[in-house]
C-alpha cells in the first residue's frame, strides 16, 4: 500500500509546546554558542563533536557522558543547546530532580516532560499518546539531554525507550529496532553520587536498578570527562592547592580507595545555631510572635508540604523542638534557607532551591535565590 508523505520541514505552530521550544532568540544564541565553543577544552570539544555529528546526520545514538562534579557537564549541555536552538531546531533538556533542572537552559524534570509514571515497573510506558502535542514535540526534537541520570531507576529509561520506539515507528517502522526510536539521547552524571533509592533494598538491589544494568546499556556509547574545571585558575590562588587536595579526597572516597568498607548508621551532631550566630541583625525579638504556626507544626511533614514552609535543612527543622532555644532560623535576615515544595519552576522556586532571607513580613517572606539560572532574583512567597 502507498505510504503517507510527511513534510518534515513543516512546523505545527498550532502546537503550543512546539511554539514554546522555538521561541528562543536565534541571534543571541548564535553569539552565545560561539563564545561557549571557544571556551571548550580539547576533551569537551571531542564530546561536543561526537554528539553534534549524530544530531546533524540524524543518525541517532545513545550516549552517556560520565564525569565527576566540576568537569563541565553542564557547560557542554549549554553549548549543545545553544548550537541546536540557534538553528531553529528543538532540544529537550531534562534532569532527574527539580533543582538540577534549574541549571539547564529550558530545563524540566524528566517526569514532568515525559510523563513517566511514579509507580514504575518493567512493563511501564510513558503516558504519551500518538498524535498528541507532546508526541509531536518529541518527534520534532533533534536531541534529548537527561542530566543526573544515575539517580533514576532503569525502568524510567526503559519506559521512555519503549514510548519513543512506539511514537517514532509510526512514521518509520525501521526505527522500532533502534534505542529510543533512533532519537539522539544523551544521559549525564556521576555514578559516585546518589544511585536509585530502593526502599529496604540491598546493595545488589541498588546496583541492579541503575541504568548500566538496563538492556539499553550495551548500545550506549560512553563519553568521559576527567579534567576538573573548578581547579583551572591563576597560579597565585592560595587556595588552589587546598581545593585540589579536597577534590582528590572526594574522588578517592567515591572510588572506595580510602575509608572503611563497613556499612552502618552514624549520627552527626550539627548545632542548630551554627549559621544563626553569624548574623546579628534580627528584625524581631522572637519569631514565635510572627510565625507561631511554624514552631508548633515544624515537625508535621503534611503541614510543611501544604504551606511550602521555608526552612533550614531538614535535620535542623526536626531538632527545633528538641533544642533549648525558643527561636526559629527565620529570626534573622541573611539566613540561608531551603524551599520544601515546588511552587513556580519558571521562577526557580522548586523543592530543594536554596535561598537567603532578605526580608520578613507578617504574612510574606522575601528571599533571594542562590542557585540556578534565577540566581540573584528575589521572590515574595
Report on this model:
The protein is of the alpha/beta class. It has 2 domains: 16-229, Rossmann fold, CATH 3.40.50; 276-380, no CATH class. The protein has 13 helices and 11 strands. The protein has helices at residues 16-21, 26-38, 42-56, 73-85, 98-101, 110-114, 133-140, 154-168, 203-209, 240-255, 292-297, 301-307, 314-319, and strands at 61-66, 90-95, 108-109, 141-147, 184-189, 221-224, 310-311, 336-339, 354-360, 365-369, 378-380. β4 (141-147), α8 and β5 form a beta-alpha-beta unit. The longest helix has 16 residues, at 240-255. The chain is globular, with a radius of gyration of 23 Å. The relative contact order is 0.10. Its EC number is 5.6.2.3.
What's the arrangement of secondary structure elements?
Blueprint: H1 16-21, H2 26-38, H3 42-56, E1 61-66, H4 73-85, E2 90-95, H5 98-101, E3 108-109, H6 110-114, H7 133-140, E4 141-147, H8 154-168, E5 184-189, H9 203-209, E6 221-224, H10 240-255, H11 292-297, H12 301-307, E7 310-311, H13 314-319, E8 336-339, E9 354-360, E10 365-369, E11 378-380
Parallel strand pairs: 1-5, 1-6, 2-3, 2-4, 4-5
Antiparallel strand pairs: 7-8, 8-9, 9-10, 10-11
Amino acid at each position: 500500500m502507498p505510504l503517507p508523505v510527511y513534510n518534515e520541514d513543516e512546523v505545527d505552530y498550532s502546537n503550543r509546546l512546539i511554539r514554546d521550544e522555538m521561541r528562543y532568540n536565534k541571534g543571541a544564541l548564535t553569539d552565545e554558542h560561539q563564545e561557549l565553543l571557544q571556551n571548550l577544552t580539547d576533551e569537551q570539544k571531542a564530546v561536543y563533536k561526537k554528539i553534534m555529528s549524530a544530531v546533524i546526520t540524524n543518525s541517532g545514538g545513545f550516549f552517556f557522558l560520565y564525569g565527576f562534579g566540576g568537569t563541565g557537564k553542564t557547560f557542554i549541555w549549554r553549548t549543545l543547546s545553544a548550537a541546536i536552538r540557534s538553528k531553529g531546531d528543538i532540544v529537550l533538556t531534562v534532569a532527574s530532580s527539580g533543582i538540577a533542572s534549574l541549571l539547564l537552559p529550558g530545563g524540566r524534570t524528566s517526569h514532568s516532560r515525559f510523563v513517566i509514571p511514579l509507580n514504575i515497573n518493567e512493563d511501564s510506558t510513558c503516558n504519551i499518546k500518538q498524535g498528541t502535542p507532546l508526541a509531536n514535540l518529541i518527534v520534532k526534537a533533534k536531541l534529548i539531554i537527561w542530566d543526573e541520570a544515575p539517580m533514576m531507576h532503569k525502568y524510567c529509561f526503559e519506559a521512555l525507550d519503549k514510548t519513543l520506539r512506539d511514537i517514532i515507528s509510526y512514521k518509520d517502522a525501521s526505527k522500532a529496532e533502534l534505542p529510543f526510536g533512533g532519537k539522539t539521547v544523551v544521559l549525564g552524571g556521576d555514578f559516585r553520587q546518589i544511585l536509585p533509592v530502593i526502599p529496604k533494598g540491598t546493595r545488589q538491589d541498588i546496583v541492579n536498578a541503575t541504568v548500566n544494568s538496563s538492556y539499553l546499556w550495551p548500545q550506549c556509547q560512553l563519553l568521559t570527562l576527567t579534567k576538573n574545571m573548578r581547579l583551572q585558575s591563576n597560579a597565585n590562588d592560595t587556595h588552589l592547592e587546598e581545593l585540589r587536595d579536597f577534590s582528590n579526597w572526594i574522588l578517592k572516597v567515591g572510588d572506595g580507595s580510602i575509608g572503611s568498607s563497613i556499612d552502618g548508621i552514624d549520627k552527626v551532631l550539627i548545632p542548630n545555631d551554627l549559621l544563626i550566630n553569624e548574623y546579628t541583625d534580627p528584625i524581631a525579638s522572637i519569631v514565635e510572635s510572627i510565625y507561631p504556626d511554624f514552631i508548633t507544626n515544624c515537625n508535621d511533614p503534611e503541614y510543611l508540604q501544604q504551606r511550602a514552609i521555608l526552612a533550614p535543612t531538614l535535620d535542623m527543622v526536626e531538632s527545633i523542638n528538641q533544642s533549648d532555644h525558643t527561636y526559629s532560623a527565620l529570626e534573622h535576615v541573611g539566613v540561608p534557607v531551603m524551599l520544601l515544595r515546588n511552587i513556580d519552576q519558571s521562577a526557580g522556586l522548586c523543592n530543594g532551591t536554596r535561598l537567603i532571607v532578605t526580608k520578613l513580613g507578617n504574612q510574606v517572606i522575601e528571599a533571594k535565590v542562590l542557585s540556578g539560572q534565577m540566581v540573584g532574583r528575589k521572590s515574595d512567597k
